[in-house]
Design goal:
Length: about 120
C-alpha cells in the first residue's frame, strides 16, 4: 500500500515562507507524476505544482515565481518551497502521486497565512 506523508504546514505571516515535505513509502520513480494540490474552505481542490518522473515541472499561474517544487530521490521525498506567501494561499495542502495503478493522496497539511 502506498503511503504519502506530508509535513511542514503551519501558521505564517504574509510575506513569509514555508516548506512542505511529502515522504513516500515507495521510490518516487515508481510514480509518473507527483505534485501538490490545495483546497481552501468552500472551494474545489486545485493543482499547485507537479513534477514528472523525468523532472518536468509545472505550476499554477497563481503560484508561479513564488513556489518551487523539488525532490530528493535518495529520501523519496518531494518538497514544496513556498515564498512570499499571501493570505489567499491559506488552504489544506495535499501531496499527490499518479502511478500506473492509480492515484494516491496524503492526509493533508494545513497552511494558514495571516495578513
Amino acid at each position: 500500500q502506498v503511503q504519502l506523508v506530508e509535513s511542514g504546514g503551519g501558521l505564517v505571516q504574509a510575506g513569509g515562507s514555508l516548506r512542505l515535505s511529502c515522504a513516500t513509502s515507495r521510490t518516487i520513480f515508481s510514480f509518473n507524476t507527483m505534485g501538490w494540490f490545495r483546497q481552501a474552505p468552500g472551494k474545489q481542490r486545485e493543482l499547485v505544482a507537479t513534477i514528472t518522473r523525468d523532472g518536468s515541472l509545472d505550476y499554477a499561474d497563481t503560484v508561479k515565481g513564488r513556489f518551487t517544487i523539488s525532490r530528493d530521490n535518495a529520501k523519496n521525498t518531494v518538497y514544496l518551497q513556498m515564498n512570499s506567501l499571501k493570505p489567499e494561499d491559506t488552504a489544506a495542502y495535499y501531496c499527490h502521486a499518479r502511478g500506473t495503478r492509480g492515484n494516491y493522496w496524503g492526509q493533508g497539511t494545513q497552511v494558514t497565512v495571516s495578513s
